[in-house]
Design goal:
759 residues, binds MU-OXO-diiron, binds calcium ion, six-stranded mixed β-sheet, globular, TAT_signal, mainly beta, DUF839 domain-containing protein
Length: 759
């Protein structure tokens, strides 16, 4: 079995000062290089011949940034690098998953929250105002409209060619490669999937409902057996302003009284595009508060971010614009001219990512997916068509065969360690509508498209298990077992009295009481903990919650990814070793292992290591976010465990405890950065990861007692060697701006990453 050798010196340490350095720390024998930073150009001139100047002048990023035209950001790395995938490429420029010296990387640019100020050339913590206002830096004024254009372009996906030097064995970006391409929140995309959905996509931009513009909040990712990339739209609702509607919207008014808008309001609110307080008529619209993009002008370029029904028909306005977001989006990295397709058959929610199940000829294509919000669900998609390897040559057209027609399921975790996949067919959902809570009870669906576009409501009806924020999934290539990180939840509550039902809302939904889907849910076997976070002294703070998250895993019946039953247990419980309260450090983590808020996770096919990444704010007063290496066991290798006592006791199932040779911290990142994205060269000798939003908490650093007026991080810049990017002193200096970036991790002896850690 796999185990770390005793000689390894993984970065985990009880040296708290070092763990808060503004730096990347790796085990002895490892190094890294910065590959692709926010703002780095992919081309030297744009299609009109205008030069795209280099972004980094050797000292800092502040010098020229405000003066770049907004359009230049269509050709630069976006912000908040997140999930991604390595696509090996052969000499003919075709997909070759085994290619080790030439590849296309596809990288998501999730967001600009907490860092938008840096791309406008200022250090202050927040640049958003309602309405958006001009920003002046020195002699340069950036209008509100140009700010929005830059921000739209800073979202989306980068596809770019990388090559490995045959002598140095180090990778670099091939600027001006014909494969280099940015997909932004303004790129034209098509709506794939059941025709029944098209009418819900009609906008002033696309009166036939076949097209939309842009992809948003691209979080984790996936890939297909035919060599295309899947980027997933997570927190897209917060970009849109909604209602109140000037015109009643027909077609979504079913069963909810005289006000024709009530059905629409319920659907909007279930996706965070407003809230319901009381009955369905009491709808408070959202204001697009994340960005206020709709406020920067009056033309359609800005009006597209407002889903108020202002015209007579849907083709007069953008009331349906938000219906075109929340999907798995397929991109063909090998064909920059191919229009990306939104795969609506895979459901609409806050898609974290899409993880491919084991692939076999003559069997369906299966994807595991999660909706990353408190009390949301884990899903599975099973294609109707069985896999024919000859289709691998079709590129994105293969996606039309396998990803436009299939069955969606939601996971239900039973208390006996079994689970079932509940189908979200219209027939099954209609039979369960009486289960819908509060004001949703009585709502019905118009057609299959309505069910798909409102997957969350369908899952409520059939009774999926509400989870503590599903982040990444990972499929063990050795046995097909599926892991999901459940990062944390501030809406998970302990049971304190008889009659409180595991997994149920804390208060009974009512048609007249204040109603929110995002209200507390009692602990249950699959989400069994609710406890106080602790500060760096180990003292409890705040309300009880799942403060540190856990990792659940399941084994499909008969190892068949299309099965409708599974067995599950909890692989690991996150915890701080300082938190000594009963029922917290359930996995008996040590100082070399303890972690909080698991997010990214990925199996190396070379070593079998399960890599785990964190995106945390409960433990960031003690340590920056991290990457851990773990040795997976299998479902059932531990046993039953009871968390809590008396009426509050929850019986659950956990994996075996892992020794320090089986679970170990491997990397600790710079300040206020999430560690995310995992890609590996097929020889296992380069691990690519993403450092997301260093310094995002400018002015309000999560680290206790720290208030900073300049960015809390300056990674990766104030260095003698920016290529290496190590800030040896660990302290930001001056008013230099941090950047998200893709880094490449190498072993100094050229060996397999983690290969010295496993026997
Ligand atoms: Fe974008 Fe769920 O993290
Ligand atoms: Ca994530
Ligand atoms: Ca804490
Ligand atoms: Ca993040």
């Amino acid at each position: 079995s796999l185990s770390f050798t005793p000689s390894s010196t993984a970065a985990g340490s009880t040296d708290l000062t070092a763990l808060l350095d503004d730096n990347i720390k790796l085990p002895a024998g490892y190094t890294y290089e910065v590959l692709y930073r926010t703002g780095d150009p992919l081309v030297s001139t744009d299609p009109l011949g205008n030069p795209i100047p280099a972004h980094y002048n050797g000292t800092d990023y502040t010098a020229n940034v405000p003066a770049y035209p907004a359009s230049s950001w269509q050709y630069r790395a976006g912000d908040h690098h997140d999930g991604g995938h390595y696509f090996g490429m052969n000499a003919a420029g075709k997909f070759d998953p085994k290619a080790t010296d030439r590849a296309l990387l596809a990288i998501n640019h999730e967001n600009i929250a907490g860092t938008a100020q840096f791309i406008h050339g200022i250090a202050t913590a927040s640049i958003t105002s309602n309405p958006r206002a001009d920003i002046t830096v020195g002699a340069v004024t950036t209008t509100a409209a140009d700010q929005v254009r830059k921000e739209v372009n800073a979202h989306g996906v980068s596809v770019f060619e990388i090559r490995r030097d045959t002598t140095t064995k180090r990778w670099s970006v091939v600027v001006d490669s014909p494969f280099n391409k940015r997909y932004t929140a303004g790129t034209v995309m098509s709506m794939g999937g059941p025709a029944a959905a098209k009418k819900y996509f009609v906008t002033k931009f696309s009166p036939t409902g076949e097209l939309t513009r842009g992809t948003l909040n691209n979080c984790a990712a996936g890939y297909t057996p035919w060599g295309t990339y899947l980027t997933c739209e997570e927190n897209w609702p917060f970009y849109f302003r909604s209602g109140p509607n000037a015109t009643p919207v027909t077609g979504l008014a079913d069963g909810k009284g005289a006000d024709k808008n009530q059905g629409r309001y319920l659907r909007l609110a279930r996706y965070g595009l407003g809230t319901i307080s009381g009955d369905a008529s009491q709808f408070t619209p959202s204001v697009g508060s994340e960005k206020f993009w709709s406020t920067a002008g009056t033309t359609d370029e800005f009006a597209r971010w407002d889903v108020t029904a202002s015209g007579t028909t849907a083709a007069d306005d953008f009331r349906n614009a938000a219906n075109t977001f929340g999907y798995v989006v397929e991109i063909d990295p090998f064909d920059p001219s191919a229009v990306p397709r939104k795969r609506t058959a895979m459901g609409r929610f806050y898609h974290e990512g899409a993880w491919l199940g084991p692939v076999a000829e003559g069997k369906p294509i299966v994807y595991y997916m999660g909706c990353d919000s408190r009390n949301e669900y884990i899903y599975k998609y099973v294609s109707t068509k069985n896999w024919n390897p000859a289709d691998a040559s079709l590129g994105i057209l293969a996606g039309d065969l396998y990803l436009n027609d299939g069955t969606l399921y939601v996971a239900k975790f039973n208390s006996d360690g079994t689970g079932v996949w509940l189908p979200l067919t219209r027939t099954a959902v209609n039979a369960a509508l009486g289960n819908l809570p509060g004001p949703y009870n009585g709502l019905s669906f118009n057609d299959d498209g309505d069910v798909l576009i409102h997957t969350r409501i369908a899952a409520d009806a059939v009774g999926g298990t509400r989870m503590d924020r599903p982040e990444w999934g990972a499929v063990n290539p050795k046995n097909g077992e599926v892991y999901f990180t459940l990062t944390k939840s501030s809406r998970r509550t302990a049971i304190t009295a008889a009659g409180q039902t595991q997994g149920a809302f804390v208060t009974t939904p009512s048609g007249t009481a204040a109603y929110s889907q995002d209200r507390p849910v009692y602990v249950d076997p699959a989400n069994p903990r609710s406890y106080q976070d602790v500060n760096s002294a180990g003292t409890g703070t705040g309300a009880a919650q799942n403060a540190n998250g856990h990792i659940i895993r399941f084994a499909e019946a008969n190892a068949n990814p299309a099965a409708t039953a599974f067995r599950w247990d909890i692989y690991l419980f996150g915890a701080e070793i300082r938190n000594t309260a009963a029922g917290v450090n359930v996995s008996a983590l040590t100082a070399q292992q303890d972690f909080s808020s698991p997010d990214g996770c990925w199996f190396s096919p070379t070593t079998g290591i399960l890599w785990i990444q964190t995106d945390d704010d409960a433990y960031t007063d003690v340590t920056n976010c991290m990457l851990l290496a773990s040795v997976p066991g299998k479902v059932g290798d531990g046993g039953p465990v009871t968390i809590g006592t008396g009426v509050g006791a929850v019986n659950t199932f956990k994996g075996k405890n892992l020794s320090e040779s089986q679970l170990r911290r491997f990397l600790v990142g710079p300040r206020d950065a999430e560690i995310t994205g995992l890609m590996e060269s097929p020889d296992g000798k380069t691990l690519f990861i993403n450092i997301q939003h260093p310094g995002e908490n400018t002015g309000t650093s999560a680290r206790a007692g720290t208030s900073v007026s300049s960015p809390s991080s300056s990674w990766p810049q104030p260095n003698t060697d920016p290529k290496v990017g190590n800030n040896a002193t660990g302290n930001p200096t001056g008013n230099t701006f941090p950047r998200s970036a893709t880094i490449a991790i190498y072993r100094n002896d050229g060996g397999v990453i983690g290969g010295d850690l496993v026997a």
